Amino acid sequence: AAMGRTVVELFYDVVSPYSWLGFEVLCRYQHIWNIDLRFRPAFLGGIMQATGNKPPAMLPKRAEYMLKDIKRMAKYYQVPVKISEDDFQRVLGKSSLGAMRFITAIDMTQPQYLEPLSREFWIRFWSQEDISQPENILSVAGQAGISSEVAQKLLGIISSPAVQNRL
């Protein structure tokens, strides 16, 4: 890290609206706050399973608060998180694993695309698109400026032990 700069590691999964808010705020203010921001893609489903934790949306009182909280923060920070009670069921039924593996593969090979790619996955996921299908992952990659050759190649390695272990 540069002299006097604090390293901030952001562990995130595009399934998490709180991660998205944190991501956007840290990206926006990193130069003002003089931080060395490092993105660390992580698979929240795996963490929940390993720790025996439950997503807040599964606990009725927490879900109710989370709905208000995310809407308020999205408005305040101007981040386009659109969330409703229906999303909780959808989110619990959809996996971000393929997307997070693809993001990890980018992190390992073309880290300059990490920020736009992650943002695009969040936008798609929270506007109710299914980001688990290969063709949708490729579409997200294209939108983030990644060539189709590179995207196809990375899609081919998302199940490799190197990518899985890193994630």
UniProtKB/TrEMBL annotation:
Q: Which residue intervals define the domain DSBA-like thioredoxin in the entry?
A: 7-165
Extract the InterPro entries matched here: DSBA-like_thioredoxin_dom, GST_Kappa/NadH, HCCAis_GSTk, Thioredoxin-like_sf
Q: Which GO terms fall under molecular function for this chain's record?
A: glutathione peroxidase activity; glutathione transferase activity
- Provide an example Pfam family for this protein: DSBA
Query: What are its GO cellular component terms?
Result: mitochondrion; peroxisome
Instruction: Please name the catalytic residues of this protein.
Output: 16 (nucleophile)
The protein's annotated catalytic reaction(s) are: RX + glutathione = an S-substituted glutathione + a halide anion + H(+)
Biological process (GO) annotations held by this record are: glutathione metabolic process
Q: What is its EC number?
A: 2.5.1.18
**The keyword Transferase is assigned to this record:** yes
Q: What is this protein called?
A: Glutathione S-transferase kappa 1
Please give the organism: Podiceps cristatus (Great crested grebe)
